[in-house]
Write a structure and sequence with these properties.
By secondary structure, this protein is an alpha/beta fold. About 45% of the residues lie in helices and about 20% in strands. It contains 8 helices and 12 strands. The protein is elongated.
Length: about 230
């Protein structure tokens, strides 16, 4: 069975080799690039299934690479997982809002990186299955057809916005989303709502969920996620 191709973009030789070795060991075909310009060319040549993209690159940096790939119709569908140094919150937010699918901070565990890559690669299949289904996580049961939420089998009254935010996060446990991404997913790109409105909705959700509200985590400087 053919394996997916991963393009690893990293200018530090030791990190590049660490990632290459572990992904090859996991069965992926690995292509490497050490600069932003080379990365853009390799994406068009190799047509990878996913790009692992370091943000700190010589010349064209990772955010510029992300922007170029996502704004080009021929490459916009290629998932991007960013590698970032700790504390680069602004870059993480910028990358996610440009269309990156996930991020991992350095130093990182190769096993965690591989697991996050698998999760991103599963995303298209997940989205295809999302049309009609029941989502169950952390004692919550979300019935999309009935627009109903059960907490330990007891019905929970939510507003339409609270329901949609909870469903959006619950379908992707462990994935961090910015406030803008949540707004776009729940209301559409042109919905006139502020970041603060998302915070208010999350506070209301946590309160209604009681002790299960702790499963909705705040990722400082970035946004929100539901625990895996």
């Amino acid at each position: 069975m053919s394996k997916e191709t991963i393009l690893v973009v990293e200018d530090e030789e030791d990190i590049l080799e660490l990632v290459r070795y572990n992904l090859a060991k996991a069965g992926y075909r690995v292509v490497c690039a050490q600069s932003g310009e080379e990365a853009v060319n390799k994406v068009k040549e190799a047509r990878p299934d996913l790009v692992v993209l370091d943000l700190m690159l010589p010349g064209m940096d990772g955010l510029d690479v992300c922007k170029r790939l996502k704004f080009d119709k021929s490459t916009s569908g290629v998932p991007i997982l960013m590698l970032t140094a700790r504390g680069e919150e602004a870059d993480i937010v910028a990358g996610l809002e440009l269309g990156a699918d996930d991020y991992v901070t350095k130093p990182f565990s190769p096993r965690v990186l591989t697991a996050r890559i698998r999760a991103v690669l599963r995303r298209p299949k997940l989205e295809e299955q999302e049309k009609d289904q029941i989502v169950s996580i952390h004692g919550l049961t979300i019935d999309t057809a009935r627009h109903e939420v059960l907490v330990r089998d007891e019905p929970l009254a939510l507003t339409a916005t609270e329901f949609n935010i909870l469903l959006f996060l619950a379908r992707r446990p462990g994935w961090v989303f910015t406030r803008d991404q949540i707004i776009s997913a729940v209301k559409g790109d042109d919905y006139p709502v502020t970041d603060r409105s998302v915070d208010v909705q999350i506070v209301g959700l946590r309160k209604k969920l009681g002790d299960l509200g702790l499963c909705i985590e705040t990722v400082r400087g970035v946004g929100y996620r539901i625990k895996e």
